[in-house]
Specification:
alpha+beta, 44% helix, globular
């Protein structure tokens, strides 16, 4: 392979990206109110926006235009004009199990539950409960649960209870009760279809807001815009040498990202050992080193996170229960506390907030999953705006490859970790 060719490809690609960034700056494309307000990573607010677009009686005043295309291209359902005219769209729809379905499309003939996951973890039997609830509505057409995530992955292990697995050659390929859909392909593609409609084009503000919504969703996945993608594609496909050079770079990029994730965990582990020696590290199945670093090595090869972690015993409650302090990468890096039972992580909680307060002091106690408190690193911002996204590969992620930024990132993360641990010790 001609090293000069690789250097030329990288140099030309860098210049193309620079020009696109300059164009975005000049056109004001970097100004996105959804991203600035942190709405683009907030599941509740994203659901409200999506539901308002789908609502035939929504403030867009375009009737069932959006719902009709959504049903056709995303849900793959045939809704007649009469059914569409009577459709209602809800958010936070309450069920018998005291759960709330993120979005529901309801007509006289069907009840369609849509569960949205951006960065939140799955609750135990959540999709199974929603499917049972849809079944209990006794509609003419029984709907599966549409499971909407950034990239269309299946529910994670903790949330698959009650689901019926579908296997092919002993490999899990899905579940009977759910249909996975993604923001990355399905929702963004649907928005493009809507933007092409003349009725939408004629309404300038609606058109502009849909573009902002789509760009915010693309940002969650770290996607290049179509123009930049086309320019890069043209650059690397000029001739056989160019595509070979690009292919070699692509293979090296995957390894470089894995090396960075490994470096992050090893550096955090080393610093915590020296600065917080009172924390007892647990080298168990959840630790990032388990099974010869399998969680690290496969992290970038899968859609869903493999959850590489650093695990520490913080305190023992009784002979069955411990409080663990954990640092973990899902999509983003975060740390927090959870209760384990018999040394196992479980979402089925039997420890109350009142009981926890006797053993650990926290600003608040979260519900859901095994975590009862967590924060993104290296920021207290619950939206994780300044936190690297290891799946979407946001701008902060790329900065970690700069040594000075990496050092500052570790330093600030450790400051936050020490603050959280120190505060948790101060039991009244």
């Amino acid at each position: 392979m001609n090293e000069a060719k690789i250097e030329k490809i990288l140099s030309d690609a860098t210049e193309i990206i620079r020009k696109h960034e300059e164009s975005k700056f000049n056109n004001g494309e970097q100004f996105n109110v959804l991203e600035i307000a942190g709405i683009s990573t907030d599941e509740v607010k994203i659901c409200k926006i999506l539901a308002e677009i789908l609502n035939p009686n929504g403030t867009h005043c375009l009737g069932n235009l959006f719902l009709k295309t959504f049903a056709e291209f995303i849900l793959h359902l045939e809704l007649g004009e009469n059914e569409l005219s009577q459709a209602k769209v809800y958010t936070e729809y309450p069920t018998y199990e005291s759960r709330r379905i993120d979005i529901v499309v309801q007509t006289p003939e069907r009840f369609v539950p849509i569960e949205v996951k951006i960065y939140a973890t799955d609750q135990v039997a959540q999709c199974s409960d929603y499917y049972k609830y849809a079944k209990s509505m006794h509609k003419k057409h029984l709907s599966k649960v549409y499971y909407l995530t950034l990239d269309g992955h299946l529910p994670q292990k903790g949330g698959t209870k009650g689901l019926t697995p579908i296997k092919e050659d002993d490999a899990l390929i899905g579940y009977e009760e759910i249909i996975p859909i993604s923001f990355e392909k399905d929702i963004c593609r649907w928005i493009d279809i809507c933007l092409a409609d003349n009725k939408v084009k004629d309404r300038t503000l609606i058109y502009a807001n849909l573009i902002q919504f789509k760009k915010a969703l693309e940002g969650l996945n770290g996607n290049m815009n179509n123009e930049l993608k086309d320019d890069i594609k043209h650059l690397i496909s000029k001739d056989s040498e160019s595509i070979k050079a690009a292919h070699s770079v692509a293979e090296s990029v995957a390894e470089a990202k894995t090396d960075l994730l490994m470096k992050l965990f090893k550096t955090l582990e080393s610093n915590i050992a020296s600065e917080l020696p009172e924390l007892e590290q647990l080298n168990n199945e959840y630790d990032y080193k388990a099974d010869n670093y399998s969680m690290i090595n496969s992290y970038f090869q899968t859609k869903a996170s493999t959850h590489p972690s650093l695990i520490y015993k913080f305190k023992t409650i009784d002979e069955d229960r411990d409080i663990w302090f954990a640092i973990e990468v899902d999509y983003k890096l975060f740390c927090g506390f959870g209760v384990t039972y018999g040394g196992e992580i479980t979402d089925e909680k039997t420890t109350t907030k009142e009981e926890l307060k006797e053993h650990i002091k926290l600003a608040h106690y979260d519900e859901g999953g095994w975590w009862f408190y967590w924060e993104y690193l290296p920021t207290h911002d619950k939206q994780g705006t300044y936190t690297p996204d290891f799946k979407a590969n946001n701008e902060v992620f790329f900065k970690l490859f700069d040594d000075a930024y990496f050092e500052d990132f570790i330093k600030n993360s450790l400051i936050q970790i020490k603050k959280i641990v120190d505060e948790a010790k101060n039991i009244k």
